[in-house]
Amino acid sequence: MTDQTTPAEPASFAARIRRRLRSLEPIHVALLGLLAIPGHLFDSLAALQVFWVFFLALLWPLVAPLVELALGRAADAEEAVGPTDWIETGDWRTYAAWYLMLPLTILNPLVLAQDTMQFLGAAVAYARHRGSMPAAGSYEQRRSYRLPFDGRWTVVNGSYDRDYSHSWFPVNQRYAYDFVITDADGRTSPEGSGSRVESSYCYDEPVLAPADGAVIDVCDSAFESSRGGGLSHLLKRDIRGNYVVIQHAPDEYSCLAHLVPGSVGVEPGDRVTRGQRIGRCGHTGNSSDPHLHFQLQDHPDFEIAAGLPVAFDDVDAEWPGAEAPIDDPSTRNDADGARTFVTAGQRVAHVDRDGDASSRTRDITDAASEAHDAGSGGATDRRRAGIEFLQRVAFGACVGGVVTYFVSIVASWLVVAEVLAAGAALGVAYRLGLSLRRGDGYVRRPGSIGTVVGAGLVATVVAWYGTNGFAIGVGLLALGASTFLAGFVVFLVLGEYDGRRLRASFADAVVRA
């Protein structure tokens, strides 16, 4: 149980501003930019075009780290500081490397498409929850979860409290956590060891299943940069890098991301038990340094899921630095024992108790997993394999739409078609290369070839448009946007259907258990 008290209100101006900035939600300001749309549709409302300036608020996450760093240095050392200030997150070189990576990351159409889908998926999540998103003080989780590692780790990012959350918007990562291992001085690697990933204390450490369940999605073939310190691999195919998604209850899925390539030891359809090793902590995807990303979500698809607050059981937590000035939803006690919400700045460890899991929970999740294996909606049946493939085709269409939209700003339709065709060809070559390395232990993402197919279809559409389509009166920009939206709608419809099937099969298994 965490002994947590609220410190006195920081006295300095810099400290007060830091707290205010943490609660700033740029998306609320950016939404005012939508008022500019009528200005482009109706000449009489042209004055509204000035509202486009509000979209600049979306750049705030890029500026916030520098502002936080400056204000932190301006605060008096004797005053209360932020909960994570004791953690050494890097010097100016780390920030410089991170900013240098941003343009290259943004230009990656796979990442840009996925990021855009996250924002659209937030609206879907709000609709799913009828406008009232799950909250730490009221959400009743269906399963008992342990921390996804052994030993003592540090919560470097994430909280049940909005001001210290991983990212309050988009909502799929609202209650996500980033875990690292630090020493007593707050360093994530030995002093003077450099930025190589192997020097990080958490790199290659085992990652464990937080509860019993059935594996429904896996990626184990993402590239990994050999260095951290703000750097990540240029050829990202998914912002999660290598990851595992596990279904634990009808509407509760855990996602464990940024794993080491080739370290994932499970495949879709496998049953896992609480505490079982599923991979190793790495530096793949959108990662500035090796760390473990963990989140609980209400849907199997990351892009359209809503993040769920998770209280871990049997947690030993300590505050090396200042405690966070947050409202504590309190430690919960139920039939499975004490459950604790953890937050940024804490060092946490799992304390084994009574075999680490109740037999009832294990019986239920095993029964559900057996139903999956039997083909009643699980990850390995042919119907779900088909859904996975079609979803990846839809995602490929979204990627093609992004490429069409942005490349057409500076080039002709022919260049757009050539870029898409070249990307599809590289994708095929990459998949063939992985097929030749099957013996290396890589677990391929189900239906991943569908992304290549989707991008290839968009290349065909653009080529047809260039030779025959000008008469329809639609520009390339509109064609790209329409293709993206069409791909997202198909992805959404298939995802919701798949989610309902998984939910129904899990519920049926629980009843039979």
TrEMBL record:
InterPro entries attached to this UniProt entry: Cell_wall_metabolism_enzyme (IPR050570), Dup_hybrid_motif (IPR011055), M23ase_b-sheet_dom (IPR016047)
One Pfam family hit: Peptidase_M23
Keyword field: Membrane, Transmembrane, Transmembrane helix
Protein name: M23 family metallopeptidase
Region (Disordered): 352-380
Gene Ontology terms, MF aspect: metalloendopeptidase activity
Chain intervals with Basic and acidic residues compositional bias: 352-373
Domain M23ase beta-sheet core: 204-298
Organism: Haloterrigena gelatinilytica
Highest taxon above the source species: Archaea
Transmembrane parts of this sequence: 26-42, 48-67, 389-407, 413-434, 446-465, 471-494
Signal sequence annotation: none
